[in-house]
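Shipment paperwork, digital attachment
Item: protein structure file
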Amino acid sequence: MLVLSTAGCRAEISPAGAELTRLSNSLTGQEYLWNADPAVWGRHAPVLFPIVGRLPDDTYLHRGRSYRLGQHGFARDAEFTVLHQSDTDATLELRDSTATRAVYPFAFVLTITYALLHNTLHVMWQVQNPADASEALLFSIGAHPAFRCPLRPEQDEKFDDYAFRFDHPTSFGRQLLRGGMRTGLTAPVLHEAATLPLTYELFADDALVLAHFDFTRLALQATSGTGPFVRLEFVGFPYLGLWTKGPEAAFVCIEPWHGVASPVGPPQELADKEGILTLEAGQVFEAQYSITVG
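Attachment content:
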C-alpha cells in the first residue's frame, strides 16, 4: 500500500488497480472514502480503462473482429507497477501485455499520478500510444470514486441528509439507462438550482449520466451546509456519472469520465462508440481531476 500524507490529510493507494483506497483527515480522523464492503459494493475508487460503462453482451468489434471486454475494462483489476513514491506523491504504470491484447488489441502505456497538496488530492492520467506504426489507440478513461454518505453515520446522519452542491445555479438532464446501456432517452433532473438533495429514489433507475453540463466543481455535504465535505473539480470532462447502489449502500459516487456506456443495441465498432478517444502513434493524452476534503 502506498501512503501519502500532509499535515492534515492522508491518502492510501493500492498498486492493485492503482486504486485510491483511503482518504482521511489525519487531525480529526474523518474518513471520506467508502470502505468497499464486499456485501454491498467491494470497490473504493476504481480506474475505468480502456472503456467506460457497459458494452452490448460485453462485446465490441475492431475491424470486424469480435472482442469481449467486461464493464469498465480491465485496469481496475490489473496490477500496476510503482514508478515513483514520495511522502506526498506516487506514480503507477500499466502497459499492454499478452493478456490485455487478447481482449483489447492495442499497445498502450497508462500512467497515473496521485499528488497530495494540503487537503487536496490531485489525480493525473497520462495515456500514451507507443506504437511505432500507423495503428491508432482507441480508448476511454474515467474515475469512479465512492464517498461515504453520510459522512458521519456515528452522529445518526442519513443519506438524505446530504446534497450535491454545484459551483453555480445550473440545469441538466440525465441519459436514461437500460441494463447499464444508454437508451437514447433523457429526463430532466435539475433546473436553475445550485443544490440537488440526495435520495435513494433519485438513483432508482440506475446512475445519473450527464453529457451536457456547465459546471466543473461539485461538492458533497450535509444539506445544513455544515460539517465535513468532499469537493471534486473536473475541468474538461465531457461526461459525469453520479451513482449509488441502493438503500443498503452508505456511499455515493462522483465520476468524471472521458467516455460513456454503449447504446442499447448490437455490438458496434469500437471506433464508432460515443466518447472513444483516438491517439495516433506517438501521441499522448492527459487529463486530471482533484478531490478536496474538509
